[in-house]
Design goal:
alpha/beta; Rossmann fold; 7 strands
């Protein structure tokens, strides 16, 4: 069965850090969700690919995703090329998502930047009837870019209230003890002297505050969003 929301990321644990609350909220609303990790994380400094696979499986159970797949692309050597695009197209056609969440295309980790570009291109190519990859043609309707931990001044297009889901998001993140126990930085999260779990909470609390709630996850879209009913708009202005 197709999923409603598919999160694509470079490494096991990237989705948990950036958009796990949003996946949980979607699942709570009855939507089918999925995760596609592009690499196994075999080049990571901490842990092993095998251990991270077990951690990812436990996290997926907490997140309630319908399916989690790994594309098996090389960690720290991710490329946006014909062969890698074909691989990702096959997975997108398998999931047939309406919405795809991608990493933001700016970041200090090369794999994060490439994952964003590769995922975007594969989403387009997956809809071409004559594109040579397994599966029926399918092009997602919406692409969202996860903005968590960005230092640049880009303003989110919208923020998802994940207050009811936050504790479960943290439980999913804590599944990756090999990566995060004792850590003070990870991926796009720069060190401040606090432990990583506190940093995640601080970031989510900040984005929650801008929509007048406890915790939030920020997203960006290139296209302007449409509003059907201005009377029902949330977030108090004055």
């Amino acid at each position: 069965m197709p999923v409603d929301v598919l999160a694509i990321a470079a490494h096991r644990d990237d989705v948990e850090l950036t958009c796990a609350g949003t996946l949980l909220r979607a699942a709570d609303a009855g939507h089918r969700t999925g995760i596609l990790d592009l690499t196994a994380g075999e080049s990571g400094t901490r842990g092993t690919a095998e251990l991270r696979a077990r951690e990812a499986e436990r996290a997926a159970e907490i997140l309630g995703v319908a399916e989690r797949r790994n594309a098996g692309l090389p960690d720290a050597h991710l490329r946006n090329a014909d062969d890698t695009r074909r691989t990702v197209v096959e997975h997108i056609r398998h999931f047939a998502p309406r919405v795809v969440i991608l990493p933001f295309p700016v970041g200090r980790h090369p794999d994060h930047r490439i994952a964003s570009e590769l995922g975007r291109d594969a989403c387009f190519l997956a809809g071409l009837a004559r594109y040579d990859a397994p599966g029926a043609p399918h092009r997602p309707f919406k692409l969202l870019y996860a903005l968590s931990y960005r230092e640049d001044p880009l303003k989110p297009t919208f923020v998802v209230d994940i207050s009811p889901q936050f504790e479960r998001k943290m439980a999913a993140i804590r599944c990756y003890a090999s990566q995060f126990d004792g850590a003070k930085a990870a991926g796009e999260i720069f060190p401040t002297g606090q432990d990583l779990y506190t940093l995640v909470e601080t970031q989510n609390a900040h984005y929650g505050s801008v929509i007048r709630t406890r915790y939030g996850e920020p997203f960006y879209t290139h296209e302007t969003m449409a509003v059907d009913d201005v009377v029902s708009l949330g977030v108090q202005s004055m």
